[in-house]
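Sharing a chain and its predicted structure for anyone who wants a worked example. Both blocks are below, sequence first, tokens second.
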Amino acid sequence: MARPGLLLICAVVLLASSFASAAVVEHTFTVQNLTVTRLCNQRVITAVNNKLPGPTLHVHVGDTVVVHVINNSPYNLTIHWHGIFQRLSAWADGPSMVTQCPILPGNQYTYKFQIIDQEGTLWWHAHSSWLRATVYGALIIRPKTGQSYPFLKPYKEVPIVLGEWWDANVIDVENEALATGAAPNNSNAYTINGLPGDLYNCSQNQIYTLNVKQGNVYLLRIINAALNNQLFFKIANHNMTVVAVDATYTNPYVTDVVVIAPGQTVDVLLCADQPVGSYYMAATPYASAAGAPLFDNTTTRGIIVYDGAASNVTPQMPALPAFNDTPTAHKFYTNITGLVGAPHWVPVATQVDKRMFVTVGLALEACPENTTCKFSINGTSINDTKFSASMNNASFEFPTTLSMLQAFFFNVPGIYTTDFPSRPPLKFDYTNSNLSFDTSLLFAPKSTKVTRLQYNTTVELVFQDTSLIGVENHPMHIHGFNFHVLAQGFGNYNPSKHQKLFNLVNPQMRNTIAVPVGGWAVVRFTANNPGVWLTHCHLDVHLPVGLATAFVVENGPTPSTTLPPPPADLPQC
């Protein structure tokens, strides 16, 4: 237990904080092959500026960010600035074939955008194929000059970027899965700031270490950059206080475990209030899929070392949740509330213009002629089928000849259609496991269907998980917007019953929501940003097989609400 004197030290940390003035923050990202050694083997990966993770961007509210991306890798590439609103800068959002054609090998593109009405922890990552397995980094937004955090000023701020590692070429892993229709091979390790930690072979010296001073408060900016797994994160003998999620401030929430889905960020205050010593921090998967199919059931860990700690003492290890501990995950996700009146707090819109009910789940696709497909579930093969996924029975297919944003701006037909259904075409018992392999429900047609919205439309969106193939917790990310999370729960959403649970006072705000396994989540946002905004599952095993759609937001009535033309160096297909 913490000693009273140390708690007092942690409680009297100064509140004041000052930062640099708004500026142009300019970086060059050189993307190229990098040879690294992990898990006893040398691997050639794609990396930015010869770093894993890539560079951390430090900016302030109001800054303009300019990043010159030079693609010296052998792969097509784009960069997405995850959670950035991209107000009137949709050309810089980054998803391949949505807002731009990819940057071809040997070419470059300059991303330029302003930081408007948001602060906290976000991140950037590749948004083409599975390159984000190694092409990622933190993006930290601090307050404007003269403004402070709405919580204790930390002694130090520390990014904790959780990743996932394959002892293979990740592009080959993805391509093999897409070609055969099988689920891709699992990862071999998780990482903390690029290092697997000492539980893996040949990794005793590849462990992240954070040195702390007893009595100080540290702001841990936790990012889940893993491709396909939610993660539990704990620190032995220490509580953490959540103060922000997805770069939006929260009411302080004390917890001994953080649960974080791919794409999400969680900011926690850690008080070094324990006896001088060493303590493991650890991350292990939360795998909610029904029947617990094969997954990377390993644990990464780093070490927190107090100043003065003996070097010959084994660090204490936290007790980690079971991989399928859904009650712990749900408790964490549902106990977070928004900090009303904090910088950039936005009240919940009370008038809803468009209501949508969208199923999210897995599906099957018929095996093409003259092709051998290998899809199986829990070791059971399903002949002549490929793994797929859909939203409202529409399995999303990315364009190949022109980006969707170019088609929107230049009014080019044939790239997408605006007939994405607002409700499932067939109503059924969505979470009934007896329907998991009902072939009348499993096959979702391929299409590029989107929802067209007038500027300033307020949308209420129910994400409903299904049991098709199997229930799973899907982290759904909406590009270009934050949304309020009004409620979430298990089973089938019932408006007459569940609307009573809506938090319209201080709901958490996010850009990525972990839809509960076999359950639902209700979010609400206002489409006040013209452009094409991808909406998708942030498990990369699901995105390329169709678990996506997009919102096409029309221009507003004034020049300040109208998307400008594309930059001159926008990549062409």
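Comments welcome. The radius of gyration is 23 Å.
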